[in-house]
Design a protein that fits this description.
By secondary structure, the chain is mostly helical. It has helices at 2-29, 31-75, 85-93, 98-108, 111-118, 126-167, 179-211, 221-225, 230-236. Helices cover 78% and strands 0% of the residues. The protein is elongated, with a radius of gyration of 23 Å.
C-alpha cells in the first residue's frame, strides 16, 4: 500500500514537473517559437491519432487476423465443440504467443473471463471457435497496442518536422513581441505544450501496461487511480480500453 502511495506521488510529480518545465521553456523561447511548437505538437497529436486508428485496423486485418487464426487452428486437431467452454478457451489461448496471452489474461483475468466475453459463439469447428476468440478477445488488445505504437511513431516523425521549422523562427521572435508580453505569451503556450507532452507520456505508460498484461508491480491500476493529477490524463486518454 505504501509502495502504491509513493508511485502515485511520483506520477503526479512527473506531471507537475513536465508542465512547469515547459512553462519555463516558453518564457525562455518566446511567443513565436512556442506558437509554432505548440500548434505543431497539437497538429501532430491529431494527425497521428487519426492516422494510427486507420493504420492499426488495416495492419490487423491484412497481416495479423487470418494468419493468427490459421496458425492456431492448424496446431489444434479435432473439434472442441464437446469440451467445456473454459477448456476450449484455455486450449486456444495456449497457442497464442506468450506476450499476447499475457495481455489477454491481464484484461480478462483467466480463461473463464474470456469465455464469458465470447459467449455463445463457442461451438462448431476449431476455426470458428478460434476466430470468435481472436475477434472478441484478442483484437481489442492488439488494436490498442498497434494504435499506441503507431501514434508514438507518427507523432515523433511529425514533431521532428515541426521542430525543424520552429528553429528557423528563433531570430524573428523580437519582431513580433518583446519583453514581458513575449514571455507571458510564451509561458501560456508552454503550458499547453506541457500538457500535450504529458499526454504522450501517458500513452507510453499505457503501452507498457498493455504489453505487460497489467503485471508491472509499480504501475498497478490501484496506484494509477490513487493519483490526483495523472489519473485525469490516464482516464481521458482515447487509448484506454473501457
Amino acid at each position: 500500500m505504501q509502495g502504491d502511495s509513493i508511485v502515485s506521488l511520483l506520477l503526479d510529480l512527473m506531471v507537475a514537473l513536465i508542465t512547469v518545465g515547459f512553462i519555463w521553456y516558453g518564457v525562455r523561447r518566446g511567443f513565436l517559437v512556442m506558437l509554432v511548437n505548440t500548434c505543431g505538437r497539437l497538429l501532430s497529436c491529431v494527425v497521428a491519432y487519426v492516422a494510427s486508428r486507420a493504420l492499426a485496423t488495416t495492419i490487423y486485418n491484412v497481416y495479423i487476423h487470418d494468419r493468427l487464426v490459421d496458425s492456431i487452428a492448424s496446431s489444434i486437431s479435432g473439434s472442441l465443440a464437446d469440451s467445456d467452454a473454459a477448456v476450449q478457451v484455455s486450449v486456444i489461448l495456449q497457442e497464442l504467443p506468450g506476450f499476447l496471452r499475457n495481455m489477454v489474461y491481464g484484461l480478462f483475468g483467466d480463461a473463464a473471463g474470456v469465455s464469458a466475453a465470447v459467449g455463445e459463439t463457442l461451438d462448431g469447428s476449431v476455426t470458428v471457435i478460434t476466430a470468435a476468440i481472436v475477434d472478441q478477445a484478442v483484437y481489442p488488445i492488439v488494436y490498442l497496442v498497434l494504435q499506441c505504437l503507431l501514434f508514438l511513431l507518427l507523432f515523433t516523425c511529425l514533431k521532428i518536422i515541426i521542430g525543424a521549422l520552429s528553429e528557423t523562427l528563433r531570430n524573428l521572435r523580437r519582431c513580433i513581441l518583446v519583453g514581458v508580453p513575449d514571455m507571458l505569451a510564451g509561458a501560456a503556450l508552454g503550458a499547453v505544450e506541457g500538457l500535450l507532452t504529458v499526454f504522450v507520456v501517458v500513452v507510453v505508460i499505457q503501452l507498457l501496461v498493455y504489453c505487460s498484461g497489467g503485471r508491472i508491480p509499480f504501475l498497478t491500476d490501484e496506484a494509477i487511480q490513487s493519483t490526483h493529477i495523472f489519473r485525469v490524463f490516464y482516464n481521458l486518454s482515447p487509448f484506454v480500453d473501457n
